[in-house]
């Protein structure tokens, strides 16, 4: 197994002045290229904190995150942003789309921060929108879409820079069961094409589709 992502002895302590919240304590994780891993645990167990750290959106208080064999500790904010944009696609519970912007323009957005020439943007975005089956909604504004459609746009946007992995934090949390299953099928499809998927969820049943489950409790891996 070639590790694509490693967390070594990662702790995160939120300093709230009078109190300190230990959100993660000595977490060790190794994720292989092409794996589909679920990170599960109850609300407050530290899943989102871990996801933000693995995705280089936040830095640990202690420990290291190693991506493709490169230690990210000490990287500047600019370097981290570049690594994120090239290597990681994010999907969140709340979709995080630009509401009054079209499907096409939402998916084009990450390309504007990439090295892809502008002449390629529309073609690449349309290709991803077709994969999630929304080619007939290109010109709709995202606030005109259903929850499931919004999440499919978010997946297309996460994929458009051809990242090596997808990090999804409760991606079905705002969707009904049936729509949630459809979203999960999109992740399975991407995984079968070789993408590494890290799915964060409190839903044990949903986590069953992953090859491997990492269980968090009170900031520690218990399984
Ligand atoms: N930005 C923050 N500031 C202070 N405490 C936080 C912050 N984010 C999360 N926490 C705390 O850290 C713990 C883990 O939270 P979180 O990672 O969001 O868990 P989960 O995603 O599993 O619900 C909780 O006790 C939460 O209140
Ligand atoms: Mg969370």
TrEMBL record:
<dbReference type="GO" id="GO:0022857">
    <property type="term" value="F:transmembrane transporter activity"/>
</dbReference>
<comment type="similarity">
    <text>Belongs to the ABC transporter superfamily.</text>
</comment>
<dbReference type="GO" id="GO:0016887">
    <property type="term" value="F:ATP hydrolysis activity"/>
</dbReference>
<keyword id="KW-0813">Transport</keyword>
<dbReference type="InterPro" id="IPR003439">
    <property type="entry name" value="ABC_transporter-like_ATP-bd"/>
</dbReference>
<dbReference type="InterPro" id="IPR017911">
    <property type="entry name" value="MacB-like_ATP-bd"/>
</dbReference>
<dbReference type="Pfam" id="PF00005">
    <property type="entry name" value="ABC_tran"/>
</dbReference>
<keyword id="KW-0067">ATP-binding</keyword>
<protein>
    <recommendedName>
        <fullName>ABC transporter domain-containing protein</fullName>
    </recommendedName>
</protein>
<dbReference type="InterPro" id="IPR003593">
    <property type="entry name" value="AAA+_ATPase"/>
</dbReference>
<dbReference type="GO" id="GO:0005524">
    <property type="term" value="F:ATP binding"/>
</dbReference>
<dbReference type="InterPro" id="IPR027417">
    <property type="entry name" value="P-loop_NTPase"/>
</dbReference>
<dbReference type="GO" id="GO:0098796">
    <property type="term" value="C:membrane protein complex"/>
</dbReference>
<feature type="domain" description="ABC transporter">
    <location>
        <begin position="5"/>
        <end position="222"/>
    </location>
</feature>
<keyword id="KW-0547">Nucleotide-binding</keyword>
<dbReference type="InterPro" id="IPR017871">
    <property type="entry name" value="ABC_transporter-like_CS"/>
</dbReference>
């Amino acid at each position: 197994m070639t590790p694509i992502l490693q967390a070594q002895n990662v702790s995160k302590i939120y300093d709230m002045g009078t109190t300190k919240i230990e959100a993660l304590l000595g977490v060790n994780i190794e994720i292989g290229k092409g794996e589909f891993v679920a990170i599960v645990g109850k609300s407050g167990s530290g899943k989102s904190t871990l996801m933000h750290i693995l995705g280089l959106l936040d830095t640990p208080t202690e420990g290291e995150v190693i991506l493709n064999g490169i230690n990210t500790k000490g990287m500047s904010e600019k370097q981290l942003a570049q690594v994120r944009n090239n290597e990681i696609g994010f999907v969140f519970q709340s979709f995080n789309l630009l509401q009054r912007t079209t499907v096409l323009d939402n998916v084009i957005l990450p390309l504007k921060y990439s090295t892809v020439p502008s002449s390629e943007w529309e073609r690449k975005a349309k290709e991803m929108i077709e994969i999630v089956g929304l080619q007939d909604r290109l010109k709709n504004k995202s606030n005109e879409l259903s929850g499931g459609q919004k999440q499919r746009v978010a997946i297309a946007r996460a994929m458009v820079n051809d990242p090596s992995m997808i990090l999804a934090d409760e991606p079905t949390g705002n969707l009904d069961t049936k729509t949630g299953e459809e979203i999960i099928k999109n992740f399975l499809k991407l995984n079968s094409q070789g993408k590494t998927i890290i799915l964060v969820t409190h839903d044990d049943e949903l986590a069953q589709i992953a090859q491997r489950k990492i269980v968090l409790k009170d900031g520690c891996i218990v399984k």
